[in-house]
Amino acid sequence: MQQRVLNVLExxxxxxxxxxxxxSSLGREKAAALIPSVSxxxxxxxxxxxxxxxxxxxxxxxxxxxxxxxxxxxLKRSKIGGMLSASELIEIAGTIYAGRQIKHFIEDMIxxxxxxxxxxxxxxxxxxxxxxEKRIKQCIDDNGEILDHASDAxxxxxxxxxxxxxxxxxxxxxxxxxSSAQTMLSDAIITIRNDRFVLPVKQExxxxxxxxxxxxxxxGATLFVEPQAVVELNNAVQQARVREKMEIxxxxxxxxxxxxxxxxxxLANVDILADLDFIFMKARYxxxxxxxxxxxxxxxxxxxxxxRHPLLPEDQVVANDIAIGEDYTTIVxxxxxxxxxxxxxxxxGIFTLMAQxxxxxxxxxxxxxxxxxxxxxxxxxxxxxEQSLSTFSSHMxxxxxxxxxxxxxxxxxxxxxxxxxxxxxxxxxxxxxLDEVYGRGARxxxxxxxxxxxxxGYNRDGVTNASVEFDIETLSPTYRLLIGxxxxxxxFEISKRLGLADYVIRSAKSQMTSxxxxxxxxxxxxxxxxKQAEAERAEAESIRKxxxxxxxxxxxxxxxxxxxxxxxxxxxxxxxxxxxxAAREEAEGVIRELRRMSKEQHASVKEHELINARKRLEEAQxxxxxxxxxxxxxxxxxxxxAGDEVKVTSFNQKGHLVEKxxxxxxxxxxxxxxxxxxxxxxxxxxxxxxxxxxxxLATVKGRDYHVSLELDLRGERYExxxxxxxxxxxxxxxxxxxxxxxxxxxxxxxxxxxxxEYVKNHRSVKNARxxxxxxxxxxxxxxELK
Length: 786
Fold this sequence. Notes:
By secondary structure, this protein is an alpha/beta fold. It folds into 5 domains: about 5-130 and about 260-290, MutS, DNA mismatch repair protein, Chain A, domain 3; about 155-235, no CATH class; about 295-500, 3-Layer(aba) Sandwich (Rossmann fold); about 640-700, Roll (SH3 type barrels), CATH 2.30.30; about 705-785, Ribosomal Protein S8, Chain: A, domain 1, CATH 3.30.1370.110. The strands form 6 sheets. It has a 6-stranded mixed beta sheet, with helices on both faces.
């Protein structure tokens, strides 16, 4: 990628925003060096990394990187025998700690069933150097001070030093408390000069204390004197300090040597941690800009849904749908300079660079971008003072360079193509350049204000027009991209709204060619048609979603019906088997009894014994209870007519006839459903009510026509929720539903209790209960209707 293109498309600013989310200088260093990849496999791998980190942040909020610092210089110095300072060793221990923490963090998430394949591979490579970390922490505190228990020798030296310092202080304090001290001392305090304890003595009493003068005040009136009485003790303190320093150096050298032994492993850890910090940095940036992962391809297809430029404030930028690479490979955005065309160019360009750099993009899920080998951009006013080039010449230098290199693996972005010269020549040049780049198979997006290019998209296959919508009412652009519609001049409309006289506008229009007027009328009609089509598409989408929900609800009811039917069949089979088994056992008992009697040589079987045996066999035959329902009477022959009330005997449901659809077949309305039913399956129950002139339910329309099997009250206020429950139950009864569900959630329990009490006292409710474990538990109330 050319550095100039990265700058023009403001990729450097994206990197600056990215670097703000780094946990260490290691991550910032990687972000500063980030450039887009031209390999599809590498870009996908980077996107996988970012997506896994985004999953972690979504589930856990963040990842632990506390203690991570750039210790590479210190480690390299330890490898060549250098002695590290206490602060350097503490940073090394902190980095080891950071590696251990992030390793356990990622492995714990994987053990809990969260799939983190790429992050898991990196965490597995981290070496937990616990012994070295523990040894450093035992010797050095968090402020970089060597602890007393770092070695036995250091502990003894410091104890001796503190004891000697205490003796010096005691000696000097006794001098301060003497009766002559107030006269001879400038201040009754003990101070330190040149690491030795001294007293502030007035100049004239210097000889009273003897000893050594170490310093004097700026005025010379006070001398800082080490009295002779404490010189030997101060010498002992100094000697203790020298031994302490030597022992500390010995400890630091030992720790440096231990660090050097593990330096290679720590450096490997640092590289992995830098990579992890960089990956999580990208995920945190994605969260900030509300980004999603794009799908990547190498077919040159770009499909963006509600794309927002990442450097513009979310509340100010307008999200647009942009597509190129399938039905057309070139987009020409025409129209006056309203500020939206260049943003569209830069959005496509920066999205491409971000995706190829492993960054997620601020667009809806399902967006797709291509991985290009090259991205070329000629955007903005690039007048070159150094080269004495005009704006046109500067642009042309860039365009010549692009034409030398562009191919079918390139994305080319032209802003105001052909501008800066004679309009007729500029338009012709722009068309020729577009033809050349299009012929090479590149994906091209170009902006221009030349009207001649409006027809370009209609005369060439693979090319489409686009424009940025302009609101005549507010005299400002809406920044909505309209693909398929060329831009048109709004000069006359704007002038009229600003108060320009009508006769001046009419005179101006009369000077325009008929072709221009015809084009403007065509564009206006296209805009109106597109708006109408979008509105109809939105309405159709809403109806489709409602139909899908209804279909899902009906499927659920059918599944429940089949499940209940299967359970009843199983129960009936089980009862039949039990009764047959009992009958067999009784019959076998009778047979055994008859055999016993026949074997008795002198016994004669009496008539009443045979009668009893026959009776027992008859009683052994299983008896199945018949349904308590009275057998359905055969429907009386009646001539059926549209609107008659009927009963569908196979479903045991009532409805009415809508129309006859064939020989012996009718379309029947049952509740909200219509179905074709054989006439033999219909039972006439009454004629249509005379006062009704139209078919029942046939004119019920609108969004409330379909009643869902579930009512979701989560997030509703208590009073609003009960009002919705009342209306919903009435609608469900009218729809003929036997059972519905009300989702109220668990929460504090107030809404759940209120819903339970309300439905139990409702006139149409037969029974109400909480859902079972598989239905939502106490967060849902299942209502059976009468």
